[in-house]
Amino acid sequence: MSPSSIIIFTFLILLISPISLSAIDAGDDDNLTAYEVIESFGFPKGILPIGVTGYELDKSTGRFKAFFNGTCSFSLEGAYDLRYKSTIGGIISKGRLTNLTGVSVKVFLFWLNIVEVYTSEDELGFSVGIASAGFPIDNFEMCPQCGCGMDCNGVSESDRGKQVRKDIANRFVSSL
C-alpha cells in the first residue's frame, strides 16, 4: 500500500467513525421519552405536562423542542395559570433551559413568557425576564395534566401541595 493510500484510508476511517458513533447515540435517544430527556439534564419531569407527543434534541447545539397535540393550559390550585403552546422549545444544558419559547404564566392580568428554567441545588428557578422565582424541586415530581393541572377527576393535591402552589403564586407576585 502506498503512503498516499494509507493517508486516504486513515482519513476515511476517521471521517466515518464519528458519524457511526453519533448515529448510535441518536438511536439510543430515540428510545427515551421527552420526560426522560428532561431528567437526563437534571430537571424533574413535572416541568412538562402530561401529553407530550414527541420531541427533538440537537445534541450539538442543545436545541430542544417538545410537541403537544394542541395548546395546553391549566391552573394549579387557582394560584396561577400556565399555558403551553403546541410546540415549546429552548436550548437545554445540564441544569439550564434558556431561550425558552411557548410557555407563559399569568401574573395578575398579564401573561408573561417564561424565558428560562434553571436548577440550583434543591431549587428550580423560573425567569420571566423582569422577575424570577425559585421553588423546591420536589414540587415538580408529578406532571400536571392539560385542562386540570393537579386537580383532575375531583382528586386534588394534598394540603401541603395546595400551600406550595399558593406560595408559587406569591413568589412571582413579590418578585415583580
From TrEMBL:
Leader peptide range in chain numbering: 1-23
Top-rank taxon, per record: Eukaryota
Pfam families membership: DUF538
UniProt keywords, alphabetically: Signal
PANTHER family, alphabetized: DUF538 FAMILY PROTEIN, T31J12.3 PROTEIN-RELATED
Protein name: DUF538 domain-containing protein
